[in-house]
Write the structure tokens for this entry.
Amino acid sequence: MRHEADPRSRPGTRPDATASSGPHLLAVGGGKGGVGKTLLTANIAAALAQAGRRVVAIDTDLEGANLHTVLGVPAPRASLADFVAKRESDLRKLVVDTPIPGLRLIAGTQGHLGAPQPRSFRRVALLSELRKLPADHVLVDLGAGTHPSVMDYFLVGQDGILVLTPEPTSVENAYSFLRAAFYRRLRLAMTSESARALVHQAMDQGNQRGIRTPLDLLREIRTIAPEEGERFAAAVQGFRPRIVVNAARTAEDVRLGFAVKSVCKKYFGIEADYVGYVNHDEAVTQAIRQRRPVVVSHPHSDAAVYLTRIARKLMDAGRRARGSRPAPRPHGAHGYARRPLA
Ligand SMILES: Nc1ncnc2c1ncn2[C@@H]1O[C@H](COP(=O)(O)OP(=O)(O)OP(=O)(O)O)[C@@H](O)[C@H]1O
Ligand SMILES: [Mg+2]
């Protein structure tokens, strides 16, 4: 198919993915269900809006859409499902207001249960529509799992945020998610069919060629298609996931982010950023019951303070991508040691 053959039309490889035009795209994923992806999306979006930015949050979880509820919007009729079903091709017409000034929403409600995810062709159209939204930041809430559509949304943004909680199951799923995103990015970056086929083989951990690590893969790719080596290195370099540890209760939980960062470096050769943690906080539960982001309903709670801090870091990263001056750094070595955890 033509859109698959042209690298510019593949998600995550478009030349404008990191360019300064269009909104700053941030996708929030994590592999496992219930780890706080929607919490992060809603609150980073709200915190950015509170800082005076124009923000659109979009719920791509068509099977479990609930971002609208967390933002206090009664189930909207217009939703991303209209775009997926081709009832509407202009994404801007699906944007609805939220009670939070500066923050608008494209909900994921009213999905077609038989065909919940857009097909590859429609995803490419969606990703280019996202870049036309009149906003400074677009926050993309992802569903659980590693479906190719989830990966495409994760890879499209300048910033892919990986949320995990300090539980072995979440950590395990976070690594599978990273691995899937990493190899998908590599595969999309390769232009020759043979190199793409090799990446595909490497995605199977028990592959017969003995490719176990990205370095093994690079070696093999250089053998069969030397010209792809540079593209491979660029794709690895450009992949910089931002890690957030959610629902932290102990200092050890907080350190998990650093452990994940070093595993990323050691096993994939990728530089991940640990952008902060959010502690487990009863205020989060109360805020959800009130259908308001915690940064709005309980702005002085620990969770709100940490979420705002993460939003600020991401805003700085977005500014840097656009080539303008960063906002002043928060205090503390890493910017997230304000209230020590137990
Ligand atoms: N920091 C926290 N403190 C307390 N409770 C939390 C925290 N983070 C998440 N939760 C609880 O976990 C629930 C799930 O969070 P959320 O809906 O954001 O997860 P999700 O990753 O989007 O899930 P899904 O994969 O189903 O979309 C929330 O409703 C909330 O009750
Ligand atoms: Mg969710």
